[in-house]
């Protein structure tokens, strides 16, 4: 599990280490880690042409110290000082001592022929998008041939939210210190960070503000059936989705539930004929949820319409004491009557995309983690806010950021698949917030497998779910015992 820590958390942990280590020691650790990753990425040191973009804070100091180390290994390093009078004094002296050169002129910094560019403009102390001088240097770097490596954080990206207010450094790699910041994996920042390399600088960190599951974490939560299990003990999920005219959502959602956790899936709704034809394994009724038989969780909403019948079905399932996943059309209905979800005794999971989210009156700016948390606390539910990096927030503030998936998943019907996957996990009795995070991870991996051969359609994702489970199970370091529930 990767813990995500805010800039304030990292700064507080840094100050503890600073208080008990010699001056500059922490920055040396960071710079040594940075130079090591750079050498690995470049594959050589001697003759390597490196340009450092150096801001006026400690982020620039990291770049200067790493530049000094690279110079000593035979690299030709130029530091472009964006604010020469304020460049980190010790770092600047170190680079000069090692034989590196410095300039204040972007045109003379060798960006047109650099092999490697280190972005040390701003780190956790940055505010807003790049200022004009920094933006010009970044534009030259992007136009040049060098590998773009961000120091701690791509400059211009908000460390805590990933918001990019203006321009930012489009890194191919980010070497981050002490902890992964949320802004590297969520929101726009995710697209600017490239591959993230974490350098341990010996911080003692508090509980993370959010978490990202690994393949091994997810595999450990998908327990194999035991000898004593039967179809009921594996979890029975009920699905109300699709319509007689558009049965697709019912077919996809039911199929995804079957392929994620093949205990038992009961379908109730007007797409009954289509679902029966597609999935003989499901128990199907064209009646209402109450006619479906006993279930342990409900999925309600995909393609089910927003008429009075759909509204009364939503009210019926939310009146049960079972976990309920509310998606798509049912979210539109719930936004008009949120009191149906507030105060339920059993967990409720909402799976909105941005438009569905704002229908509830919740604001959605650049802080997707904050927005999902506010919404979850408002209604006392788990919110799975779909996006390039899906955010899952529970009513108690537990937060996950999903790290799997592919842009190919942005196609019709994949949301119906996600609902089926998470619904199946809810029916096993898994904690609702965890089920949403585990489901999002599994769905993303299945999407990646389905997209390997090119464009995917939603039923390809359903088909690849078993292979995705297998892939997760073969991930390294899968603990043998069932781990405790994440809090
Ligand atoms: N603490 C430690 O021991 C360790 C810290 N470490 C490192 O320190 C980093 C944090 O350093 P930091 O706090 O000095 O802030 P930093 O990110 O360099 O930025 C501040 C400077 O940027 C400027 N600036 C602001 N916004 C801007 C913009 N949009 N566009 C352009 N410029 C902008 C701002 O200017 P001002 O507003 O003052 O005019 C100020 O000059 C952290 O990320 C890690 O890399 C590691 O070495 C480990 C040990
Ligand atoms: K940076």
From TrEMBL:
Which InterPro entries does the protein's record reference?
Answer: Carbohydrate_kinase_pred_CS, CARKD, Nnr, Ribokinase-like, YjeF_N_dom, YjeF_N_dom_sf
Domain annotation YjeF N-terminal: ranges: 10-209
Please list the residue ranges annotated as the YjeF C-terminal domain.
Answer: 214-472
Q: For (6S)-NADPHX, which residues are the binding ones?
A: 58-62, 123-129, 152, 249, 303, 353, 416
Q: Which terms under GO biological process does the entry name?
A: metabolite repair; nicotinamide nucleotide metabolic process
Q: What does this protein need as cofactor? A: K(+); Mg(2+)
Cofactor stoichiometry and binding remark: Binds 1 potassium ion per subunit.
UniProt xrefs under CDD domains:
YXKO-related
| Chain positions recorded as K(+) binding sites | 59, 119, 155
Q: Name the Pfam families on file.
A: Carb_kinase, YjeF_N
Q: Which domain of life is it from?
A: Bacteria
- List, alphabetically, the Gene3D superfamilies matched: 3.40.1190.20, YjeF N-terminal domain
Which GO MF terms are attached to this record?
A: ADP-dependent NAD(P)H-hydrate dehydratase activity; ATP binding; kinase activity; metal ion binding; NAD(P)HX epimerase activity
Q: Which reaction does it catalyse?
A: (6S)-NADPHX + ADP = AMP + phosphate + NADPH + H(+); (6S)-NADHX + ADP = AMP + phosphate + NADH + H(+); (6R)-NADPHX = (6S)-NADPHX; (6R)-NADHX = (6S)-NADHX
**Signal peptide segment:** none
Biological role: Bifunctional enzyme that catalyzes the epimerization of the S- and R-forms of NAD(P)HX and the dehydration of the S-form of NAD(P)HX at the expense of ADP, which is converted to AMP. This allows the repair of both epimers of NAD(P)HX, a damaged form of NAD(P)H that is a result of enzymatic or heat-dependent hydration. Catalyzes the epimerization of the S- and R-forms of NAD(P)HX, a damaged form of NAD(P)H that is a result of enzymatic or heat-dependent hydration. This is a prerequisite for the S-specific NAD(P)H-hydrate dehydratase to allow the repair of both epimers of NAD(P)HX.
As for family, the record states: In the C-terminal section; belongs to the NnrD/CARKD family.
> Assembly and interactions?
Homotetramer.
Protein name as it appears in the record:
Bifunctional NAD(P)H-hydrate repair enzyme
Which species is this UniProt entry from?
Answer: Klenkia soli
Source gene? nnrE
């Amino acid at each position: 599990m990767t813990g995500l820590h805010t800039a304030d958390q990292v700064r507080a942990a840094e100050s503890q280490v600073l208080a008990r280590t010699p001056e500059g020691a922490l920055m040396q650790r960071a710079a040594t880690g940075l130079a090591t990753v750079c050498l690995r990425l470049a594959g050589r040191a001697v003759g390597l042409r490196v340009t450092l973009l150096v801001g006026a804070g400690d982020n620039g100091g990291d770049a200067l110290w790493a530049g000094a180390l690279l110079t000593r290994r035979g690299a030709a390093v130029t530091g472009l000082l964006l604010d020469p009078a304020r460049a980190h004094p010790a770092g600047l002296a170190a680079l000069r001592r090692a034989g590196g050169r410095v300039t204040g002129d972007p045109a003379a910094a060798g960006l047109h022929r650099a092999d490697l560019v280190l972005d040390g403009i701003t780190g956790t102390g940055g505010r807003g998008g790049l200022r004009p001088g920094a933006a010009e240097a970044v534009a030259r770097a992007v136009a040049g041939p060098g590998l773009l490596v961000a120091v701690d954080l791509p400059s211009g990206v908000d460390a805590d939210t990933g918001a990019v207010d203006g321009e930012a450094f489009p890194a191919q790699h980010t070497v981050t210190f002490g902890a992964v910041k949320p802004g590297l994996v969520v929101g726009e920042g995710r697209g600017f960070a490239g591959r993230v390399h974490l350098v341990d600088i010996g911080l003692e960190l508090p509980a993370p503000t959010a978490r990202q599951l690994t393949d091994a974490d997810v595999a450990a939560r998908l327990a194999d059936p035991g000898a004593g299990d039967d179809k009921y003990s594996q979890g029975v999920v009920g699905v109300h989705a699709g319509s007689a005219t558009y049965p697709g959502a019912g077919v996809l959602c039911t199929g995804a539930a079957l392929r994620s956790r093949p205990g038992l899936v009961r379908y109730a709704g007007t797409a009954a004929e289509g679902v029966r034809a597609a999935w003989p394994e499901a128990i199907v009724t064209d009646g209402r949820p109450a006619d479906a038989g006993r279930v342990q969780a409900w999925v309600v909403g995909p393609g089910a319409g927003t008429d009075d019948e759909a509204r009364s079905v939503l009210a019926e399932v939310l009146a049960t004491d079972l976990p309920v996943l509310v998606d798509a059309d049912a979210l539109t209905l719930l936004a008009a009557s949120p009191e149906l979800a507030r105060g339920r005794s059993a967990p409720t999971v909402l799976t909105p995309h941005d438009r569905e989210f704002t229908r509830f009156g919740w604001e959605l700016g650049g802080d997707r983690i904050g927005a999902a948390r506010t919404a979850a606390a408002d209604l006392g539910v788990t919110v799975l806010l779909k996006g390039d990096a899906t955010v899952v927030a529970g009513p108690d503030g537990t937060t996950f950021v999903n790290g799997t998936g592919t842009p190919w998943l942005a196609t019709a019907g994949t949301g119906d698949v996600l609902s089926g996957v998470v619904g199946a996990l809810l029916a096993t009795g898994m904690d609702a917030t965890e089920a949403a995070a585990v489901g999002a991870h599994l769905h993303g991996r299945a999407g990646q497998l389905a997209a390997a051969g090119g464009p995917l359609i939603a039923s390809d994702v359903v088909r690849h779910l078993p292979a995705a489970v297998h892939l997760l199970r073969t991930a390294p370091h899968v603990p043998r015992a069932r781990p405790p529930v994440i809090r």
